[in-house]
Design goal:
The complex is a heterodimer of chains A (about 400) and B (about 325). Chain A has about 400 residues and is α/β, with parallel strands linked by helices. Chain A is about 40% helix and about 20% strand. Chain A has two domains: about 240 residues, 3-Layer(aba) Sandwich (Rossmann fold), CATH 3.40.50; about 140 residues, Rossmann fold (3-Layer(aba) Sandwich). The radius of gyration of chain A is 21 Å and the shape is globular. Chain B folds into two domains: about 200 residues, Pyruvate-ferredoxin oxidoreductase, PFOR, domain III (Pyruvate-ferredoxin Oxidoreductase, domain 3); about 80 residues, 2-Layer Sandwich (Alpha-Beta Plaits). Classes of the chains: A alpha/beta (about 400), B alpha/beta (about 325).
């Protein structure tokens, strides 16, 4: 067993990268994820990590560097935040399309505007359709664990897909938490060495990403879809093995908190759900049957799990820490997708969308209290008067 | 009702003010040393730096925070301490900043790193609301400041905790507040001798009477929406930007000897913040925005400008 350290989400991510014995890292600074790269640079300087750290001239180059390195057989790592994430956009789909299990940390930051350092999930959620595995960690410990789990899932021969490990900027990247940093031997048992079977090799030349005829489009995309369909099975197995080896068990898809007899729940992802849990716990003391469901895997979106496990609630409030203007449902992408997932239940489960914490503003205890009260009202009356609320203006 | 529901009665908050870059490390060390000592007493702790301050600007006021509680800390995901029990100033001229005691709990403690007496410091305070005790400690005579970027932006600090002026300052905090046991603080700082000097040699003054704090009206999101210009734009050109008042960055201010000044305007050219204007009365300084960088003093060909410590002036 490793030792417990009080560290930030940035340091936790770097510790995971060290433990995964990554070969090639590409960096470019932007708050708030920068701490990950400064930590890795120190590890290399101190001889604690043997990896090539390439300072890119921008995020597009950052992603291009790990694209090539991964194709050449290296285990790779990169990361960014906010507009850095979007500047690299062109490279995401090719990495996934070439089935290269690159891993990228995203420390969320607003896109411009509002042009501040605060966290919104919008930057990473923009990338949701690029064929990457994607999930949010809510504490530094979960950051470390999720990086290790995602390497294993992404590099599984049945999957071979890149992964985004997302953490809320500041709330997770900069706020310290107690983290059990595992031993290298444990990680070796959990994470086999990276093996790419279509490696770039001068003795066996190949062209990756060639121009194709339209008729090859459907089979190429279907192949990627099949790989995506394999993720859940591999994800479940990886979480089982993780629990056995490290002694920490996470639900791969949805963490449920005080949901056993809950009538209404808040649904969301990332660090804000810790505040939601604190509020739910206080409300439980008053006898309110409330709970929290925290999404852990955003891509692939766990449609069946949500349908199976959330149809027992009377009202579900979906919290989006993002601005997707004009989206169906009128809140954010989580609300839109949860409504779609619950469509087959019919009118039994009422859903309400909440947009909060924009610009990195806190979502306060009082705001969560107001959300729970609104959901209780919806559950009691059976009527959804307003589908979506932008906080703090509309609730 | 909601206020009671989320009250954290056993939570203690410490807010440390310091100067950007040169004192980030010592400010962080004060809160880390105190929280690590508290953790040894099985307290729940949180130490963090203000994320919205601009820590890479030299001399800008920056803040580091600690939370210590016997209960789990529910209010972890905040940017600031809303109601500090203890406020620490790592550099003495910060005492003129009107924000330092904001939200202070009744009978709260102010600890200042200075050679001056508590009585002198008291005179500089813009507001004294809720203040119960002033403590001064001459930490610079007991240890040497540690200037490093190690540990910034949430990364690991490779230089150790409490080796610089943070040690005597933390010692003074413990003397005045008893927030942790002295031996626990001793076990976490790199320079326990300096820490003990701070504990033993600091000057503690209890105020005879606690003035009530004036209530502050916070702007609501609706207020902010009302005054938000179209698309968040800022008019330009402006001579002053009320959203970025930088006068509180300085620890010294320029004073001009108009007898010696030839009005050559060299200072006007070099001032990076356009704080100098030519008037019929000669060169004038806009101290609301002057950061105290001293470029005017350095470039003045006739030696007419002198940088004078801020605390030589009451205002």
């Amino acid at each position: 067993m490793g030792k417990v350290r009080r560290i930030s989400g940035c340091v936790a991510a770097a510790e995971a990268v060290r433990l995964a014995d990554v070969d090639v890292i590409s960096s470019y600074p932007i708050r708030p994820y920068t701490g990950i790269m400064s930590e890795l640079a120190r590890m290399i300087a101190d001889g604690r990590l043997d990896a090539e750290l390439v300072y890119a001239e921008g995020e597009h180059a950052q992603l291009s560097i790990v694209y090539g390195a991964s194709a050449a057989g290296a285990r790779t790592f990169t990361g960014s935040s906010g507009v850095g994430v979007t500047f690299a956009f062109e490279v995401y789909s090719p990495i996934s399309g070439e089935r290269l299990p690159v891993q990228m940390a995203i420390g969320d930051r607003t896109l411009d505007p509002p042009g501040d350092f605060g966290s919104e999930h919008t930057d990473a959620e923009c990338c949701r359709d690029q064929g990457w595995i994607q999930g949010w960690a809510s504490t530094p410990q979960e950051v470390l664990d999720m990086h290790l789990i995602y390497y294993r899932v992404g590099e599984d021969p049945k999957v071979m897909l890149p992964q985004y490990v997302c953490q809320d900027g500041y709330f997770v990247t900069h706020i310290l938490g107690d983290v059990q940093v595992p031993d290298e031997a444990q990680v070796k048992e959990f994470l086999p060495p990276y093996k790419n079977h279509h490696i770039l090799d001068p003795k066996k030349p190949q062209i990756i990403g060639p121009q194709i005829e339209p008729c090859m489009g459907p089979p190429q995309q279907y192949q990627r879809k099949q790989a995506f369909d394999n993720i859940n099975e591999v994800l479940i197995k990886a979480h089982d093995d993780f629990a056995r080896i490290f002694g920490r068990r996470y639900d791969p898809f949805l963490e449920e908190f005080m949901t056993d007899d809950a009538e209404v729940v808040i649904f969301g992802q990332g660090a804000h759900m810790n505040t939601a849990k604190a509020v739910a716990a206080r409300l439980r003391n008053l006898g309110d049957k409330v709970g929290v469901v925290r999404l852990r895997t955003f891509r692939p979106f766990p449609t069946d799990e949500i349908l199976k496990r959330m149809s027992r609630f009377k009202a579900v409030g979906v919290v989006d820490n993002s601005a997707q203007f004009g989206i169906s449902g009128g809140a954010g992408v989580l609300f839109s997708e949860v409504r779609t997932a619950l469509y087959d239940v019919g009118d039994k489960v009422k859903t309400v969308g909440f947009v909060g914490g924009l610009g990195g503003e806190m979502i306060t205890h009082d705001e969560f209290l107001r959300m729970f009260r609104k959901l209780q009202e919806v559950a009691k009356t059976g009527k959804v008067e307003k589908r979506a609320y932008w906080l703090p203006f509309e609730l | 009702m909601s206020e009671n529901l989320f009250a954290e009665p056993n939570l203690k908050q410490i807010t440390v003010w310091a100067r950007g870059v040169l004192q980030n490390k010592d400010a962080r060390d004060v809160v880390v040393a105190l929280t690590e000592a508290a953790a040894q007493e099985n307290k729940h702790v949180q130490a963090w730096e203000n994320y919205v301050d601009l820590p890479d600007r030299i001399y800008v006021p920056v803040r580091a925070y600690a939370k210590i509680s016997s209960d789990p800390i529910d209010s972890r995901y905040v940017y600031e301490n809303d109601a500090p029990d203890i406020v620490v100033l790592v550099e003495e001229t910060l005492v003129k900043n009107d924000k330092i005691l904001k939200g202070l709990k009744e009978g709260g403690i102010l600890v200042v790193n200075t050679r001056r007496s508590p009585e002198e410091i008291l005179n500089f305070l813009v507001t004294k609301g809720n203040l119960g005790t002033i403590v001064t400690v001459d930490a610079n005579s007991m240890s040497t400041a540690v200037v490093t970027l190690s540990g910034s932006e949430g990364a690991t600090d490779a230089t150790g905790i409490g080796g610089g002026i943070s040690a005597p300052i933390a010692g003074a905090v413990v003397k005045a507040s008893g927030i942790v046991k002295l031996e626990n603080l001793e076990s976490v700082v790199k320079n326990p001798a300096a820490m003990k000097r701070g504990y033993n040699e600091c000057r503690v003054m209890k105020l005879d009477k606690i003035e009530p704090a004036q209530p502050v009206k916070e702007e609501t999101a609706w207020d902010l929406l009302k005054r938000m210009p179209f698309a968040g734009t800022v008019d330009s050109p402006v001579s002053e930007n009320p959203g970025m008042v930088t006068g509180n960055w300085k620890t010294r201010r320029p004073v001009i000897d108009k007898e010696q000044c030839t009005e050559c305007s060299t200072c006007w050219i070099f001032c990076p913040d356009a704080c100098i204007t030519r008037t019929d009365n000669g060169m004038e300084f806009n101290l609301k925005y002057c950061k105290g960088c001293a470029l005017c003093e350095a470039t003045c060909p006739s030696g007419a400008i002198t940088m004078v410590p801020e605390l030589d002036f009451k205002e």
